Amino acid sequence: MANSLPNIDDKTLLSLRNQYPGAFGATSKQLIRTLVVVSLVAYTVASLWYFEVWRLASASDRAWRLISAMFNWQDMANWQYAQIYSGIAQTLAMAFLGTILATIAALFIGFLAARNTMPISPIRHLVRRMLDVLRGVDQLVWGLVFVRAVGLGPLAGVLAIFVSDTGTLSKLYSEAIENIDRKQVEGIRATGAGPIKTVRYGYLPQVMPVFISQSLYFFESSTRSATILGLVGAGGVGMIIIERFRANLFDQVTFVVLNVLVCIFVIDWLSKKIREKFIGETRH
Hints:
Blueprint: H1 10-19, H2 28-50, H3 55-58, H4 60-70, H5 81-113, H6 121-136, H7 139-150, H8 154-178, H9 182-190, H10 195-229, H11 237-246, H12 250-278
Helix pairs in contact: 5-8, 5-10, 5-11, 6-8, 7-8, 8-10, 9-10, 10-12, 11-12
Membrane topology: Multi-pass membrane protein
Subcellular location: Cell membrane
Protein name: Phosphonate ABC transporter, permease protein PhnE
C-alpha cells in the first residue's frame, strides 16, 4: 500500500505545531504540569500514610460515644448557668474592648504605614515591619505571653486581641488609604487646608466605610478568638469549656458552645444592619 500522506517540510510542520500544540504529543509545559500533579498526589498520599489516617476507623466507636454524650443532656437543673453566662458576657467584653482599642490604634498607625500619607520611607518601612511582627505571631501565642506577663484572667485576653488585631487592621487600613481617590485630597489641599484638615475631609470620608466594615468583621472574629484564648487561661467562656471537658461534662460543653454560636449569629446580624445603615449596603 502506497503512502498517501503528503510531504510536509519543516517550516509547515513548525507552523502546525504552533497552531495545534496538543496534537503533537506532550510539550515541556504539559510535562511540567503533569509532574506537578503527580507530585501533589504522591505527597497527599504520603501525608495520609504518615499521619495514619486509617486510625479513624478504629476510633469511630469512641467518637460516637462522645457525640452521644454531648447531646444527652442530664441533670440540667444543677448546671451553673450564672457562671456560664457570666463567662459568655466576659468573652464578649474581651472581644469588644480588644477590637475597639485595636481600631483606635490602627486609625493612627495605618496613616503611618501608607505610602501617600507617610513619604519618609525609613519610618514607613519601620512601621510596616512592626506590623508584620504583630500579626505574624498567632493570637493564641500572644495569649500565652500575656498570661505569663499579667497573670490569668480576661486582661490577658484583651491584650492578646488588641495586639494581634492592631497588626492586621493597621495593614488593611493602610492599603485602603493608599487606594483612595487623590483628586478629592488635592481639592482639599488647594483650599489651603493643613495636614489635619486634609486627613479629616480628604481621607476619612473615603476610607471610613471600609474601616467600619473591617472593624465589625474583626469584632465577630475576635469573639471566636476570645473563646479559644480562654483555653490558655485568658479568661472568658473558654475556661468554662476546658473545665467541663476535664470533668467529662460533655453535655454542658455542648450547651456552652451552642450559646456562643447564638451570640456570634446575633453579632453577625447586627453587623450587617450597621453596614446597611452607615455604609449603604443594599439588599439584593
